[in-house]
Design a protein that fits this description.
The complex is a heterodimer.
Chain A: E1 2-7, E2 9-10, E3 13-14, H1 16-32, E4 35-41, H2 46-54, E5 59-63, H3 73-87, E6 89-95, H4 98-111, E7 114-119, E8 130-135, E9 140-146, E10 151-155, E11 170-173, E12 186-192, E13 204-208, H5 219-228, E14 231-234, H6 236-240, E15 261-265, H7 271-277, E16 282-287, E17 300-303, H8 306-318
Parallel strand pairs in A: 1-4, 1-6, 4-5, 5-11, 6-10, 7-10, 13-14, 13-15, 15-16, 16-17
Antiparallel strand pairs in A: 2-3, 8-9
Chain B: E1 2-6, E2 9-11, E3 19-20, E4 25-26, E5 33-35, H1 37-53, E6 56-63, H2 68-77, E7 81-86, H3 92-106, E8 110-114, H4 125-133, E9 137-147, E10 150-157, E11 160-167, E12 170-174, H5 186-192, E13 197-201, E14 209-215, E15 224-225, H6 232-240
Helix pairs in contact in B: 2-5, 3-4
Classes of the chains: A alpha/beta, B alpha/beta.
The structure holds flavin-adenine dinucleotide (2 copies).
One flavin-adenine dinucleotide is lined by residues 209-211, 235-238, 251-254, 266-268, 270, 272-273, 276, 287-289, 292, 305-307 of chain A.
Family (chain A): Belongs to the ETF alpha-subunit/FixB family.
Binding site for FAD (chain A): 210, 266-273, 287
Domain Electron transfer flavoprotein alpha/beta-subunit N-terminal (chain A): 3-187
């Protein structure tokens, strides 16, 4: 018996959110008296696999087949299902991500597992298995009983603060049966910003809206983001107008994030925007209109012109 | 081209969520229900593909009769007919079973859904249905073109997007900018009244999850205002007080 964690590689490194998932999984294993196995797919080096041990895995299954280097949700689901069966894992944990979400949905179908998305706390296993998850894009929480034998928990970023130890995990090669039908979807091209901090993974986010007036003004946003080592985000009209790429759009119809810090510049704070960012730990709003609704949902606010305030903030960060 | 579009009836995005019955139910009083915004994108693209390639668009909802206004609106936007599986949609696996059962009877070329429901945010029904039907599922889809029996798809990934090709039939979870939301016109609204809406009973009753109660997030404390002339103070507070940088 074990808790199985799907740990995701990005450019050869275990994602930060996956380390959080491994740590979370080890806590679930402690609660249920089982062990913690992480499964890693695609080529990855020994250092990265060892990291899984330091964050709580006692065993790492490594499916290193090069065919798995590209994140393919269907093939990944088959491999994780096979691993879950081998390990007798009733609980599967993963961190929400573009790939993990698609993988988890297929896996739920394969294993007939109850899938709880956006889990934000450790489960309550005192009687049954109950999780707290965020619903209505953060506007409410639902306590959900998972009644099936198999359970999949997709955790939201910042659900738990992982602790790194000196522990080591045994690493085992895992050779799953790969099935042609799982490769029926052909990837013809991938366009991905390299070297940037991925928005869903970022601890700090600097975001801007229509108040910036045009794409040519994004330099001041990027400068602050760079000084803070933050990711950049934007409101929906900004991506609709093609001022910024769509994968930066946060909110009800965009990416949902829960970083430690969200700085909103020239964004009014419409309810649909808030829906994607309201679970950020600390929210800062900079807006020239003192009546902007966003101030009601913020922890810190500056009423001012972004064109004056942002360069000053950047300078202050550089001088820290 | 036979397209099935699965739609949810969900509280409007501007809804303030409140609870009743000792926090065991969402309070529906005064709440305006709309088609899930992602489902709306899926429907709009389906109608465009029908206009371009011919064929039919069927709308499917698993829900009770209070979803009928949303279904009629989908018909007004351009779907040809609708099916409602008459059941309370309390669990994603159960919903997926209903959709898969309808799909098996009708062999659609495309089954379009939203990337996720905006109420329970599961993002799973398309994957489970794909699995049940033995078809590929892809989500979140930003662009969809059909050439013969091949679909060309742009899928959003973290930090970018990927271009994909797959043979039909397929199950897709859609998001913007796959199409512009369509607003029904008068002719659409009139004709929607007479378009067929078939109500069928549910098959199976497997549920794997059960919501026991709800909670609302705690309110944020008061916003600390910093004068623009002292903007630098913010950075100090973020380090020493909030401890996030
Ligand atoms: C179904 C639905 C889904 C939606 N989903 C999303 C979503 O996912 N994400 C999203 O963001 N929106 C979403 N929206 C749109 C949302 O309702 C708002 O229209 C949008 O968030 C507004 O974007 P904005 O704040 O950038 O622009 P605006 O509302 O135009 O606000 C601009 C702000 O900038 C301020 N400003 C102007 N100049 C300056 C300056 N020099 N210095 C400082 N401040 C300045 C103004 O005071 C104003 O508050 C959705 C809407 C619907 C109907
Ligand atoms: C009274 C009540 C009780 C509920 N109790 C539970 C519970 O205990 N556990 C739980 O997990 N959920 C519960 N739900 C929510 C219900 O499961 C969801 O609304 C839906 O069944 C799937 O949720 P999802 O967020 O996973 O969908 P997603 O996977 O996010 O939906 C993706 C897409 O699938 C399609 N789709 C989803 N639902 C439907 C539908 N009903 N009809 C047609 N197409 C659909 C849409 O295209 C949608 O965009 C309850 C809902 C109600 C009203």
């Amino acid at each position: 018996m074990s808790v199985l964690i799907f740990a995701e590689l990005d450019e050869g490194a275990l994602k930060k959110s996956s380390l959080e998932a491994i740590y979370y999984g080890s806590k679930v294993a402690a609660l249920t008296g089982t062990s913690t196995t992480a499964i890693v797919l695609g080529e990855g080096n020994a250092d990265e696999l060892a990291k899984a041990g330091r964050f709580g895995a006692t065993k790492v299954l490594h499916a290193s087949d090069a065919q798995l280097n590209e994140g393919n949700a269907m093939a990944y689901a088959s491999v994780v299902a096979e691993a879950a069966n081998q390990e007798g894992a009733d609980v599967i944990v993963l961190a929400k991500s573009s790939l993990a979400d698609s993988m988890a949905a297929r896996l739920a179908g394969k294993l007939k597992a109850g899938l709880a998305a956006n889990v934000i706390e450790l489960p309550d296993v005192s009687s049954g298995f109950r999780v707290k998850r965020s619903i209505f894009t953060g506007k409410a929480f639902a306590f959900t009983e998972l009644t099936a034998e198999k359970k999949i928990l997709a955790i939201k970023k910042n659900t738990i603060t992982p602790e790194e130890t000196e522990a080591t995990a045994t690493v085992e090669a895992f050779k799953p049966a790969l099935n042609d039908t799982d490769f029926a979807v052909k990837v013809t091209n991938v366009e991905k910003a390299t070297g940037d901090i991925l928005l869903p993974e970022a601890d700090l986010v600097v975001s801007a809206g229509r108040g910036l007036k045009g794409p040519e003004n994004w330099g001041i946003v990027e400068d602050l983001a760079k000084a803070l080592h933050a990711a950049t985000a934007c409101s929906k009209p900004v991506s609709d107008l093609d001022w910024r790429p769509h994968h930066e759009h946060v909110g009800q119809t965009g990416i949902k994030i829960s970083p430690n810090l969200y700085i909103a510049c020239g964004i009014s704070g419409a309810i649909q925007h808030l829906a994607g960012v309201n679970s950020s730990k600390v929210i800062v709003v900079i807006n020239k209109d003192p009546e902007a609704p966003f101030f009601k949902s913020a922890d810190y606010g500056i009423v001012g012109d972004v064109f004056e305030v942002l360069p000053r903030l950047t300078k202050a960060v550089q001088e820290l | 081209m036979k397209i099935l579009v699965c739609v949810t009836s969900v509280p409007d995005t501007i809804t303030k969520i409140t609870l009743t019955d000792n926090n065991t139910k969402l309070n529906k009083a005064g709440v305006q229900f709309i088609t899930g915004p992602y489902d709306d994108y899926a429907l709009s693209r389906a109608v465009e593909l029908k206009e371009q390639l011919g064929g039919t668009v069927t709308v499917l909802n698993v829900g009770e009769s209070d979803a009928d206004p949303v279904i009629r609106k989908c018909l007004a936007i351009g779907a040809d007919d609708a099916i409602r599986v008459n059941a309370e949609p309390t669990d994603a696996y159960f919903v997926a079973e209903q959709i898969a059962a309808i799909a098996k009877e009708n062999s659609y070329d495309l089954i379009l859904m939203g990337r996720e429901s905006i109420d329970y945010n599961g993002g799973q029904v398309h994957g489970i249905v794909g699995e049940m039907l033995g078809l590929p599922s892809i989500s979140p889809v930003m662009k969809l073109a059909v050439e013969g029996t091949t679909a060309k798809i742009t899928r959003e990934i973290e930090g970018g997007h990927e271009e994909l090709e797959a043979g039909l039939p397929l199950v897709l979870g859609c998001q913007e900018p796959i199409a512009e939301w369509k607003i029904p016109n008068m002719r659409g609204i009139m004709s929607a009244r007479t378009k067929p809406l078939k109500v069928v009973e549910a098959t199976g009753k497997d549920t794997l999850t059960h919501i026991t109660n709800y909670e609302l997030p705690p309110a944020r404390g008061a916003c600390k205002m910093i004068p623009a002339s002292e903007a630098e103070t913010l950075i100090k507070l973020l380090r020493t007080e909030a401890k996030v940088i």
